[in-house]
Amino acid sequence: MEKTLNKSRIDLAAAYRLADMYKLSEGICNHLTLTLPTDPDRFLVVSYGTHWSQVKASNLMIVNNKGSVIEGDGIVEDTAFYIHARVHAERPDLKCLMHTHQPYTLSIAMTENGRLIPASQNSLRFYGRIAYDNEYNGLALGSDEGDRIVKALGKKNILLMANHGVLVGGETVAKTFDDLYYLERAAMAQVLASSTGQRLKTVSEKIASDTANQIQSSNSFALEHFEAMKRVLDKTQPEYKE
Question: Model's pTM, two decimal places?
């Protein structure tokens, strides 16, 4: 079990580093979490104040569903606890959660009735998988707001949060980060295309659905993508494994 936990730590540390490398992070804000393989009521999270470029496997904390630090040094940022603890509790299938304010995805969330439009191949991988929270209630500083976010997410694994950012969940770190990465790429293409002032050329619902199924049927792509990115870190930032 110790070997499994160590792998969980390494993968989540890599995700933090990669999110910083691809400019998906914002200051010392936002948070990525992963439930323990042996205890779904506890999860790994970065200590508040740690820059994502400095996250290591060893400096991730273990926190329980009451917000207490079980292992590690530091404190849990309030919104990290109230969002992630409630989603982990109500959606145990989403073992990994990634909440960011990544700029292009946020740009869409800032527009009236902002939606990811099925107009690029990358956007089609998310067809029918995104829930939309159209209400912004300020910072998530209570369990009530966490419960509201859970309700807005429903049975989907991605929540586009109006005026705020995005929450992406998945079974593994690799799958979750793959979605986070490609969501930002799809959002970037949409924002750039919209900036031309031209009408976007959308894909029919049938083609969008069929393509989404084709992409989702590839079970190994996310893992292969994540392992490839980790190999980049192995050469440039090997200390993430420490």
Answer: 0.96
Of 31-45, 61-75, 133-147, the range with the lowest mean pLDDT is 133-147
All structural domains of the chain, each given as residue ranges with its CATH number in brackets, are: 2-241 (3.40.225.10)
- Model pLDDT, residue 30: 92
Q: Is 6 helix (H, G, I), strand (E, B) or coil?
A: helix
Question: Per this entry, what is the length of the chain?
Answer: 242
Q: Which strands form 69-71's sheet, in the order they lie side by side?
A: 69-71, 60-64, 39-46, 31-36, 96-100, 165-170, 158-161, 130-133
Of 124, 108, 125, residue with least CA distance to 161: 108
Assess whether pLDDT exceeds 90 at residue 138: no
SS3 category, 237 = coil
- DSSP state for residue 28 in the 8-state scheme: T
